[in-house]
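S.,

Sequence below, as promised.
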Amino acid sequence: MASLILTVVGPDRPGLVNMLSHAVAARGGSWLESRMARLAGQFAGIVRVEAPESLLDDLPALEREGLRIAGQLVGAEAPTVRSGEALALEVVGNDRPGIVRDVTAILAGSGVNIEELATHVEDASFSGGTLFRAVARLRAPTAASIDAVRTGLETLGNDLMVDIRPAADTTGTDPQTG
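The prediction came back faster than expected:
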């Protein structure tokens, strides 16, 4: 068995996950973890499976069903102890171009790794505008990097509310529930 990462994109419709899971099961594979969403009418997902490499031979048949799939063979994930502190970050503010760029530049500049990131926009009923929301699970290498992130995020403006707090190691969980 090999460890494979599959990325899947295609017009959303019922049965896509079932179709993909059938292909994995037909090869005797195991579905280990996935993240999937409907974005702008498209289905998009990433899946980690343990299956024979021959599963990659089945991808063209799934592509004929309207999915674009890329498969990547990866080494088995060795259990490692990640260094640094697990953090939960939430950013909420009036939507504007460049928020993700600005926030991620501060994180990268502080050596903070993004382990999971979910973003969306919603109507801001109180102002009639659009509200941006990001929820992330991070790993900061040092206390100084956490301070640098806090300081950096404060410079982004008064229209953003930022909550950054220590989080239990929530590997494999939804960043919305942490």
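Strands lie at 2-11, 30-39, 42-51, 68-74, 85-94, 113-124, 129-140, 160-166.

Coffee later?
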